[in-house]
Write a structure and sequence with these properties.
single chain; 4-stranded antiparallel β-sheet; 10 helices; 4 strands; elongated; disordered N terminus
Length: about 180
């Protein structure tokens, strides 16, 4: 078994670790953005109001190091109010250096890894996380599946697949033959 330390895996991380944005709870209509980078937490807010004194107001921005965020209960409370406890828990994990590298794999690498799985195993993978469910249902995944696993696929069928969708094309034309091929 090959083991890699977190520092050796850090190259998989981009500068931005996570970002989410959305509108705050009523009655205010303010808009918020939470961004976690390798070194800091950035909290931006835009005041949304019909009042003349707020028109054209620039967003407020608060930047702090991860350790500062871990001790700032007020900002943590704001994150919960706007985005919920799950997002706060995830943000705290990132600030503590707990990264989920599997979730951060580039799509092309994930597609390559999935090409070694049997199709029935991809249905299990889709249950692992929101990202994997989205990816396993993506046109990119199904196009690669049809092109690489369906011997009967021809370039003449490409226009049909583009019009119908690659997933629908797979289940309409190739589902039975692809299963037999894998058994």
């Amino acid at each position: 078994m090959v083991t890699c330390s977190a520092s050796k895996m850090a190259f998989l991380l981009g500068e931005q670790l996570y970002q989410i944005s959305g509108q705050g709870p009523p009655p205010a209509k303010d808009f918020f953005l939470l961004e976690i980078t390798k070194n800091e937490v950035i909290w931006k807010s835009w005041k949304i109001s019909v009042r003349p004194e707020h028109r054209g107001a620039p967003p407020t921005q608060l930047k702090m190091a991860h350790q500062e965020f871990l001790h700032d209960k007020r900002l943590q409370c704001d994150v919960v109010i706007v985005f919920g406890q799950r997002i706060l828990d995830y943000t705290v994990s990132l600030c503590q250096g707990k990264f989920d590298y599997l979730e951060r794999l580039p799509d092309d690498l994930l597609l390559k890894i999935m090409s070694y799985l049997q199709l029935k195993d991809t249905t299990l993978l889709a249950q692992v996380s929101h990202r994997f469910r989205k990816f396993c249902n993506s046109e990119k995944f199904w196009e690669e599946t049809v092109r690489s696993r369906c011997a009967e696929f021809s370039s003449d069928m490409e226009d049909i697949a583009n019009a119908m969708g690659w997933r629908r094309t797979f289940f309409a034309f190739f589902h039975k033959s692809a299963i037999k091929k894998q058994q």
